[in-house]
Fold these 2 entries.
Entry 1:
Amino acid sequence: MTDPIVGARIWLPEAALQGLIDQLRASGYEVVGPRVADGAVTLVEVTSISEMPRGVRDEQEPGKYRLTVIEGAGLFDHVVGPHSLKPYLFPPRTTVLEVLKIRDSWDARVPEPPRPKRAVIGVRSCDLHALAIQDRVFLGGQHRDPEYAARREGLFLIAVNCSRSAPTCFCVSMNTGPKVDGGADLVLTELNTGFVVEVGTEKGGEVLRGLDIRESTLAEFAEATEVPQRAASQQTRRINLATVHDTLINNLEHPRWEDVAKRCLSCANCTMVCPTCFCSTVNEVTDLAGDVTTRERVWESCFNEEHSWTGSGAAHPTTKSRYRQWLTHKLATWVDQFGSSGCVGCGRCITWCPVGIDITEEVAAIEAKGGVA
Amino acid sequence: MTALPVSPWRVSMTTIRAVKAETPGVTTYDLSFDDPAAGYSFLPGQFNMLYLPGIGESAISMSSDAAEPGKLRHTVRAVGNVTRAMERLLTGDKIGVRGPFGTSWPVEQSRGNDVIVAAGGLGLAPLRPAIYHLIRHRSSYGRVTVLYGARSPADLLYTDEYEAWHSAGLDVQVTVDVGSADWQGSIGFVTTLLSRVPLEPTRTDVFTCGPEVMMRFIASGAVNRGIAAGRVFVSLERNMNCAVGLCGHCQFGSEFVCKDGPVFPFDRVRRLMHVENI
């Protein structure tokens, strides 16, 4: 009997992936995985591998996302879609306070956050790095977010090494992929008839017990090693991670900011699909009588003018100032605040930008004509 | 399961004990906590999030004496949803409070030094707790100068206190941009007062709060007179939503103004204060 200890390399036949899902569900996990919805590969609840996107590939370009089905392609031949782990840890809408009017005063209570057990199948290396970044934002400082902490605790992660890159991917240059380098309970690499599984944690090994597994052969492991290497070799976009911080900080008045502001719609799509963007705002929601108020925290964006509003006007009143805030934060001041870049090279902001603005191109343009500080 | 972090959204209820109209559109509210056992205390220069259920929150600095935290006092200009709704409140009404948040004027670090407090308009409100502290510990400081400017005599805050500040050993100098028929005092910007005040740059700290452009001129003026930029402190205003660095609204370069500020040494923010719309 094969013992799936931490570090073990296991062979999981494709049919046994269903057993893994069943095992997780039996242990009380909601299982989330890739599933086609509304023309995109989304991350939603799955109960059966038949619901997963077999043979589906995504064509991605700046401002373009299309799905095609390829005969003989695998369950994980797609790259990243518009969803990431973010909504499962930092929900787009959540209640932070409930207030009841009682006579002439108010009774305000913080609701107990839910503590779900959730397993996610198919997490990519970039998104694991994004998770580590959000951990630092929400849990790493003096003030920690209870909702995030509650959701993080019950998370079980089954990562997948990417077998291909989209043209929008640039994780290689950000040192965030495509090969998974930690942070997951299990790491799958898809081969023709099944998966090489690397056991990342004891919890991960535990759910493999009782499944139709054996140790993987050296040949299987060698083949699996090549899978993310192939994906890496396909990447053409890049950001110079070593220089981008200073390039941006020393060029806050660069003419390129005006140029990109003419194209940017300030629509906030990039910040919604970004797996690390964490801006939020709290709205007051009241019943008609005004006796019950809930304070709802919703995703917000630095691309909205009201985001920076003060009594003296908006701090970022123009698209130029808002795009500059986003890009300099993501790639430069984030490092000062949290010790790492806020970008993982997933390329979502490029794909889902309705006008196809490409952050790698914007950085390159500033870099090429730099020094205008 | 491990214990979850304490929610930053917990709010304490307070009751309005007094309402005082200060200048046009500016009101001071005296608040007391409904549950005094909460053990609230703050430092001069910090702020609270004031909350009206169904309307929202607004970040407002404390303007009262930090030595008497139970007698909380906020001076508020009615300019947004929340502060305009506060204008309609009366004694006995409730206001929710989260806080205190942010950094403070370095009153302890400044012991033994001369201090110049330079305020513009409503910027005197967050500096008043520092003034009270300097008065309370007057012998611990050298020369203490208050420079205050407002648009017009009618816009001057706390006019009934200047005499007491003067009697307590502070040099209080007041100026207005535009005078009135009965104005006997100085006319001109507060930056002009700074250029005239006698000072020893190696032992002088400057605390300034007001419109950003005014703080920039005060800070640059102080630096021009030989005061090190690290001895000049400014209080920045940005949109505050969560007040604990989790929501992103108050980003200013690498700083979260809510938790890394609002009070910053000028050398830390100097470069960005010269970039438009940063």
Note: Residues 9-81+113-233 of chain A form one domain.
Entry 2:
Amino acid sequence: MSLTGLFLTIFLIEHLIGNLLVLLQDGGAAFETYSEFLTSNPYAYLPLRFVEAILFASIILHAWSGFTVWLKNKRARLTKYKEYGIAENTKFASRWTAGTALLVFLFLVIHLKAFFWNIRLSGEHVSGYTIAHQTFSNPYYTWFYVFSFIVLGYHLYHGFQSAFQTLGLKTKKYSTLIETIAVVFWCIIPLGFALIPIYILFHPTTLALAK
Amino acid sequence: MKLTLKVWRQKDRNDEGRFVEYIANEVSPDMSFLEMLDVVNTDLVKKGETPIVFDHDCREGICGSCGMMINGRAHGPGKGIATCQLHMRSFSDGDQIVIEPWRSTAFPVLKDLMVDRTSFDRIMRAGGYTSAKTGGIPDGNSILVPKPVADEAFDAAACIGCGACVAACPNSSAMLFVSAKVSQLALLPQGKAERVERVTRMIAQMDEEKFGSCSNTYACEAECPKQISVTHIARLNREFVAAQF
């Protein structure tokens, strides 16, 4: 779970940098070039499909191992406490990792349907730039995305440092360093992602440009 | 002080168990929690009822025998104390106190508040002895151990095996206990020789006993009466990963 989790967080960096191109005021030219490279550059095609396969496998493995651990842990305490003061001893994000995971998964399904399916699998040639502007001009989509990024932030607030603990790397010496780098993952990256739908929602003129 | 106690009563392993309410009328704030239970038990005996069964021995926080869930907290409120070191001054007159046994599949309830913790013993046994022949009594300084390393090993060795880590953990994981036992030996030169076999066997036994998996909530560290740090869990994980190669 730690290894797949860390791989997925690394993917977030690439995904965010690429997606921020949507915000450039160039009618989507830069984003299209980036998009074209990802989908149809003949030299990058095979390596990128390979990485994509690893990415999907990581998501499935990460979710599966999370589910099996959750199931094992349920069996480890069959009789529940009448009074259980777990909230006094632990952080919210740590107690609700499985819950935030479920919400992130739900988000992934909706996100893949809205973007990946339409761009790559539907057979029609539509640009990601246009879809982004169409999708996020709908406030329901925008706020759902923003909410999901907050949830993702919570998931990573627990998950990032947790991965290092599981791998045995969160020693006294490196603990502060890990917690500091973690800020990038649980705060800055989700914030960056949230910026995109919010910006598009409040700048409907860019939608006209896209059309 | 007058207190209302809701205590888990269970006749034996197979009994369903239920909460029974008791009123403790004359509780002094200077009593320890176990002394308070002693007083309640004396009253029960006088009334011809079966006293509440709970584990206890040294009553000074070093044996690890006592342990119960008090108002949802392992060893009750307060940090770095076992149940025997909890005093009634931590409560107020008129309080209701819910007392439950440790809840874990690996710690079946034997009677009332007493649980079977032999799963911990089996993990220890799986760790094995240090089989190296030690010969005669060595000179005090013949094996050099740097002070910080010795301190770290001693911090781990402070574990009294009470089971509060398992009880407090939302997953009933025994990782803090196992990590303390693995750490105290893996850090020292005498224990290093058999570290690979030790960690492999102890982890296998831990899983066999049906303890849950660690999800790094760190509830164990917060409730440990000896305040053993979760950095020992990181060391255990490191030892385990290294043992795979």
Note: The domain at 2-210 of chain A is CATH 1.20.1300.10 (3 helical TM bundles of succinate and fumarate reductases).
